[in-house]
Amino acid sequence: MRLAPKRRREWMMSSYFHEGSQHQVRLGGGWVEVTEMGRGTPIVLVPGLAGGWKLLGPLAHLLARKHRVISYSLRGEWGPTATAPPAEMGELADDLGRLIEALGLERPTVFGVSFGGAIALELAVARPQSMGALVVQGAEARYRTSLGATIARRVLERFPLPSDNGFVNQFFNLLHGGKPEPGPLADFVVERCWETDQSLMARRIALLETFDVTERLWRIHVPTLVLAGSRDVIVPAARQRALAAAIPGARFALLEGAGHVGFLTHPQQVARRVRTLLHRLGNHSTC
After folding, report:
1. Which of 20, 27, 94, 185 has the smallest number of CB atoms closer than 10 Å to its CB?
2. Please, what are the domains in the chain?
């Protein structure tokens, strides 16, 4: 059963970075919107294929209780400061590296989810010295082109769709690892994802089809945590476990009952895992 409109709006707003601050940072040929909240050791959250930084709101609020949490709009996001979409994943990794430098962050923890996990991995293999730790969820070293993703990309490329399109909404529902219960959480995912232009979604799916860091994972020499939802049907947990096994010293953790958006449906579990990693690093640095 759906919540009353008033309570639904309250839930939606509670998931935003409304307690933080927003500003713009110039990266290369354009500007990106940056949102910050909390204080402490910095964590840079890299958003996924759709939904932008707002989709990371619930997790950010939890992490910001003890950390400075930073997220930003990826290149190509629509708006008054939108920049041209990238031609390759390396450009988005360069943006992330430049953002870290522009904010004066000294080896922050970089946490990428899904498409953002690919960006974080690309930066980690190219410039591991730019981060102090790496966390990824819903990511793998090389994305396998599935029939579903191919169909979704073709539809997004060729047919202008209304934001309540049932076909694409069913694809978004797969992010939960199964049909979600009707309510504000399912609505939140669909509405945030539709805030990303459909042609941009298609471009990002195409970037994933050529993404491959398999032969460069040995370059990652920072503490790494790979999180995987046990019900992730987009990037199955077994493939994410393989990613962790291929990164020297990486740890793997399974989020029981979570799908591809485990960072949203299981934020307490995710935040606890991240805090444990950073606590371990802090103890190690004082030894």
Report:
1. 185
2. 5-285 (3.40.50.1820)
